[in-house]
From TrEMBL:
Coiled coil: none
Alphabetized InterPro entries for the sequence: EamA_dom (IPR000620), EmrE-like (IPR037185)
PANTHER family reported for this sequence: ACYL-MALONYL CONDENSING ENZYME-RELATED
Full protein name: DMT family transporter
Transmembrane feature ranges: 19-36, 48-67, 73-93, 105-123, 129-153, 165-184, 196-216, 228-245, 251-268
Residue ranges of every copy of the EamA domain listed in the record: 9-119, 135-267
Entry similarity comment: Belongs to the EamA transporter family.
A Pfam family the protein falls into: EamA
Keywords from the named record: Membrane, Transmembrane, Transmembrane helix
Amino acid sequence: MATSGLFVALSATSPGTASFFRCALALPLLAPLALAERVTGGRITPLQAAWAATAGALFAADALLWTQAIHEVGVGLSVVLVNTQVVMVPLLAVAIDRETLSRRFLVILPVITAGTLLTGGVLETGATGAAPVAGTIHAVLAALCYSGFLFLLRRGGPDRPLVQSYLITMASAAVFAAAVGAMWGGFDAAPGWGPLGWLALTALCGQVLGWLLIAVGSPRLRVEVSSALLLLTPVGALLLGAIALEEAPSALQALGCALVLSSAYLVAASNDRDPRPDGG
């Protein structure tokens, strides 16, 4: 999962182009798995398919905003900032389903807010990134869209066929990404073999292998263990960005990363919902 941001950055394509191809190129890999699931595990219902397609629109928005953030604040920091979704999902549950928030969540909320401001370089000059403030805004908006994506997926029910649902989500996301990308930043249907190669790796590693491994492995682990392991994604992205792209966060940004990641772990480990892949 941690390689997705690096591969998107190396593709040097627009948000619309990158978001479309990372979803579209995953479809041929997911289709035979979805067919096998349909034969052995049952068919997806029309209502579940509708929730999955709607979730795809939010996933496309997440991918578009996150790709823009990669260009503005860097690979590693953008992935860290997207992890703020762990506090947004409970807030959506409160607003829509009237669920209650734990005392731990209320204590952690201002900490993760402060960590977000520090990570994005909002409180300093000379922070890492071409446009760190804009990148922070786009990454947090991406996290909000991703939270909505997770929230809608749960509306499909815990018994939904996972791969069939995900296939519909990716197809829907590809359509929305191409349509919105054409109006925002441009969309290139033929970006060239080099960029396509990087985006194919993004689809393979992030959209298919990473998602499948997490979907299969997470239910077999205690929630605090899976939450801790999922934090390897932003940590890995930070390391890959530093090694491959020479992205070195400032001291305050590093402190912000530590606050965001530790807060994300504390929130997720205290949450009884199944963790899902992050990073846009």
